[in-house]
TrEMBL record:
Binding site for substrate: N79, H85, D92, I106, S107, R116
Reaction catalysis annotation: 3-dehydroquinate = 3-dehydroshikimate + H2O
Name of the protein: 3-dehydroquinate dehydratase
Name of the encoding gene: aroQ
Pfam families to which the protein is assigned, alphabetical: DHquinase_II (PF01220)
Length: 151
């Protein structure tokens, strides 16, 4: 059974209490359960992680690239949090690893502060999803399953 890595960045461990008007009241545990159900529906295994540390996230992306090359992983759903708007290092890790990746945002970042309108991740992502709330995770997993199906 192939795996999907769902990787969450800084402050996503605060879901449910951090700005519920923006991010909703569901917790990261709720997101993991939703992601697990989505993976199961597509015959996939879930690897779910969260880190507040950029280097840990880079290591996970590089590991995912190796796993995809080995045929054990179909790709990554990445909610990089604020690193989306600041991290050239994450951009380089995604590009260098060659991993298939969907960039995900719970909120519609384009309807928020101007500094959130730029992403260093988008140019190296297969697709970008934003504004679907935590339901976006299930949608992104489904999309990843669809776009990585053998022809």
């Amino acid at each position: 059974m192939k795996t999907v890595l769902v990787l969450n960045g800084p402050n996503l461990n605060l879901l449910g209490t951090r700005e519920p008007a923006v991010y909703g009241s569901q917790t990261l545990g709720d997101v993991e359960a939703l992601s697990e159900a989505a993976c199961k529906a597509h015959g996939l295994k879930l690897d779910f992680r969260q880190s507040n540390h950029e280097g840990v996230m880079i290591d996970a992306i590089q590991e995912a690239g190796r796993a995809q090359a080995a045929g054990t992983l179909i790709g990554v759903v990445l909610n990089a949090g604020a690193y989306t708007h600041t991290s050239v290092a994450l951009h380089d890790a995604i590009k260098g690893s060659g991993v298939t990746l969907i960039e995900l945002h719970i909120s519609n970042v384009h309807a928020r502060e101007a500094f959130r309108h730029h992403s260093y991740i988008s140019p190296v992502a297969k697709a970008v999803m934003a504004g679907f709330g935590v339901k976006g995770y299930a949608l992104a997993i489904g999309a990843l399953a669809e776009i990585t199906k053998p022809a």
